[in-house]
Write a structure and sequence with these properties.
Blueprint: E1 11-19, E2 22-30, E3 36-41, E4 48-49, E5 66-69, H1 72-75, H2 78-88, E6 93-95, E7 98-100, E8 105-107, H3 123-136, E9 154-155, E10 160-161, E11 163-170, E12 176-184, E13 188-189, E14 207-216, H4 220-237, E15 238-239, E16 249-258, H5 265-293, E17 297-299, E18 302-304
Parallel strand pairs: 5-8, 14-16
Antiparallel strand pairs: 1-2, 2-5, 3-16, 4-8, 6-7, 9-10, 11-12, 12-14, 13-15, 17-18
Amino acid sequence: MNSITDVAGIRVGHVQRVGDGWLSGVTVVLPPVGTVGSVDVRGGGPGTHETDALDPTTLVSTVDAVVLTGGSAFGLASATGAQLWCEEQGRGFAVPGTVVPIVPAAAIFDLGRGGDVKARPGAEMGYQAAAAAFASGDHAAVERGNVGAGTGAVVARGQYKGGIGTSSITLDGGVLVGAIAVVNALGAPVGLGIGTQASAGEQGLNTTLVVIATNAVLDVAECKRTASAGHAGLARALDPSHTLADGDTVFALATGAVELDRSTEQARQVSLITLQSAAAEAVRLAILDGVRSAESVTTTAGEFPAFRPSGG
């Protein structure tokens, strides 16, 4: 399906609200229990929650859900709802009497794009998105464009609609690498025929969020390196990227279903370099897919035309 859900066990749920001042939403990526994860946060304006827990030096190596949300820092409250859903399912780090789900989150800036600056996601929307992800089932099609966290996204200094895109790449040995991106960038997409020199509409209020998933066996440090490689794909797809006004964040998840060739040190290095190169390309493709999939939206706050590249 050319989607992150080509990776077995990865599920995606979107919840959004449009109208009555709203133009925002939440996307939850729900991996199989036991999935290892890490993150690489770049840019000068990040809005994140629980990303420190994904450092390779910390206690817990697994991730129970990843929340991508609108609403800027306010929208990070949606992670609480996804965490509650995970607790009800028994997903999380076991402690006496309950579990503590590891649910990192990252936000884009879309405040006021529907007309009401206080219309932003909260815990209820996060809970619903987690439940929707679970209900979608394995290998489900992922809705693209202006859904979930991409509902209010814009690109190219606010000139055009952004949105959600996804992709996947198959490697030798049954290894899959997929990505999903929420594209809300200050920069413009590279190779789609628009430049970055137009007048500033939403300059200073941006961010692109990405989740990479693979079925390979990776440890936390290798997930961290994979997330870092994903930023190369982000930079290839958007110009400029990682600016002072972007909070670009890439998560990496490894479900551990397929062993890489680690028979020798050289084989290990080649396997990891190949996978991480594919991760960068999957990110690039997911970002361009998100821009192509966006639809024009007219709101009380203004009109954001969809970008339609000439030549297909």
